Amino acid sequence: MEKRKTFGGSIGFVLAAAGSAVGLGNIWRFPYLAARDGGGLFLVIYIVLALTFGFTLVTAEIAIGRKTKQSPLTAYGVLNKKWTWLGWLSSIVPFIILPYYCVIGGWVLKYLIAFITGHGVDAATEGYFTDFITSKAEPIVMMFIFLLLVCIVIYLGVNKGIESFSKIIMPILLVLVVGIAIFSLTISKTDDSGVVRTGVQGLKYYVIPNLDGITIKKFFTVVMDAMGQLFYSLSVAMGILIAYGSYVRDDANLPKSINQIEIFDTVVAFLAGVMIIPAVYVFSGTEGMSSGPSLMFVALPKIFASMGKIGNLIGVVFFAMVLFAAITSAMSVLEAIVSGMIDSDKNYNRGQAVIIEFFIAFILACLVCFGYNDLYFEFKLPNGAVGQILDIMDYISNSILMPIAAIATCILVGWVIKPKAIIEEVEKSGDKMGRKGLFTIMIKYIAPVCLFILLLMSLGVF
């Protein structure tokens, strides 16, 4: 078994963990949910949940990683042999996520290349996105390049790969996010009826709570949406934070690092809304707030094209930012898998683990690509959505396995090894952990109940 490396400092760990959290979900899903769920109402609920629900799960997983010095595959078994199965469950999640995430990463790369080569106007034409994803060769080529980039970083290891890359990319990513957000607030447009819409108006639409038509049922739905977004936005229940936590030194100030990760993720999620919602509002009104790929790959390119010459440049900056976010997230997903292979009884070294997973992920990602042409079919999921291979993989991993893994983690920490074990690990360096009482109540009672409700909603029970 390879000697376990450690992050060179807390900055490297925080940027790597934040990079994992800041992914495609922050950039397209957060703005959509905020726009749909009452703007500022969603933001307030999200921030409250980040400081309670998110804090609890992030703390538990990072502490488990540092306490055991093991990957997600083996960490749970170290805590309690009867819970070894949870390690396998947590390891299956990133294994399912990586292939389809790399396919979407390939889509982002395709759009970045289109804008870099001056074909941003073409990317905004009707049918461009559909024609691309239904073609047979190009999506696979783009996915291959994206997957290869991610594998190279992970192959280089914890220090030369993950930490070094995160220290370079994450500051650039933050600058791009802030820059685009500021630009989004400066734009304006006069529609055919003479009405002027501005970015500032779009910001107000985003941040001011809209309580029109709010009922108890609607409020509950907003809470569940915010919790669902926070759930995978913070990379919990994927084994990622356990893997990264295992590389944290015992003398590191863990309470401070956890707080910084919370702040970084929440700020970037908020700024993602500032980037997107004002721009969509100016050029498309409230009708332009649509979810998923249609927002990032259809609506936004049209907005960039309508901006004139500067639109192509903005498109380059935006998709570069999205690509960086996608790579840092995919890195963490791959590392969760690779660390498990290294710690398994097969004793793979890092190079072997990366190469094996590269070929497995590539084959599965090809199946996802073919799901839009030769293998296309429609399947109705229990939550009511209709999808094909990518959607099924996403549903199984995000909506079923992750809530189950998180519920089990809450039970293990809250009732088997007890919250005190985690609190002692967090305070090992002598730095006091804040919100200890909150952590105990959340991990034992509130978080598992909320997660169970979220699971039932995913299963279409109500």
Can you describe what's shown?
The chain is 75% helix and 2% strand. The chain has 462 residues and is mostly helical. It has a single domain, classed as Hydantoin permease. A two-stranded antiparallel ribbon has the order 1-2. The chain has a two-stranded antiparallel ribbon with strand order 3-4. The longest helix is centred in the C-terminal third of the chain and has 35 residues, at 309-343. Its main location: membrane. Keywords: Membrane, Transmembrane, Transmembrane helix, Transport.
Keywords:
Hydantoin permease, transmembrane, two-stranded antiparallel ribbon, mainly alpha, 462 residues, SNS_sf
Note the topology.
Blueprint: H1 10-21, H2 24-36, H3 40-68, H4 72-79, H5 84-116, H6 120-123, H7 128-134, H8 138-155, H9 157-186, E1 188-190, E2 196-198, H10 199-207, H11 216-233, H12 240-245, H13 254-284, H14 293-306, H15 309-343, H16 350-370, E3 379-380, E4 386-387, H17 389-416, H18 419-426, H19 436-458
Antiparallel strand pairs: 1-2, 3-4
Helix pairs in contact: 1-9, 1-13, 1-15, 2-11, 2-13, 3-11, 3-13, 3-18, 3-19, 4-5, 5-8, 5-15, 5-16, 5-17, 8-9, 8-15, 8-16, 9-13, 9-15, 10-13, 13-14, 14-15, 15-16, 17-19
